[in-house]
Hints:
The protein contains eight helices and eight strands. The chain is an alpha/beta fold. It folds into two domains: 3-86, CATH 3.30.30.60; 101-258, Rossmann fold (3-Layer(aba) Sandwich), CATH 3.40.50. Strands 5-4-6-7-8 form a five-stranded parallel beta sheet, sandwiched between helices. The termini are far apart.
Amino acid sequence: MNKRSRSHKHEVDLKRIKPYGDTLGDGKVQLSFTLPVESGAKAEEVARRLVKKMGLDNPQVVYQEGLSEGFTFLIVYGDCVHTIDTTIIDVPGLSHKRMSMGEIDEFIRSSIGRKIRIVGATTGTDAHTVGLDAILNMKGFSGHYGLERYEMFEVYNMGSQVPNEEFVAKSVEEDADALLVSQTVTAKDVHIKNLTELIEIVEAEGIRDRAIMIVGGPRMTGALAKELGFDAGFGPGTFAEDVAAFIAHRLVDQLDRAQ
């Protein structure tokens, strides 16, 4: 938090939150987008009118560049007129405290007594494996080791562009405790269709009640994941230990309920 944010913290009205740029509550917002309009005065006017319909006052086009014939990239400033009451918003979060790799291994060893089996993949047409490897690969990401390095996890990383049917079949074959699927947000929400299809296949196989379903991606949230039928969603700023701790605690809860 910067000094300006700290100095204004006591002035913030949590029931009327809006963005700010220079002064608390000024509503200043910067937008960038492309319009299928020829660069020039008309493109500016189209952008201004569009931004006003978005709920921003005093729109100012500060930059425009023609990308190709009939297309223009623009940057627009405006003042947001809307506010949000943050006191009525409840976002589902993880109920357990953050744990280190060693603490997680010891928790699994003492509470479960065996290795947790995980199958992971980027499914459908998704060819991106950076996020998946950050969680599963032994070297991990940014100093956070992946689950392959944990003593109490047995990991099967199937890689990219894995059909949902093959992903689920491998999970059944390995009697996996958890299924991890990584999805990059795609054009026309193809990832939503793919994730919905995956849940349907898992349910058809009769393993949904015991399989812990986790999805991760650059724009994934816990709320979206649960809406799609998953147990948890992990987005930017989360690491292997966050996923590992969630799986371990969820599995212990399942075992307790089964007794």
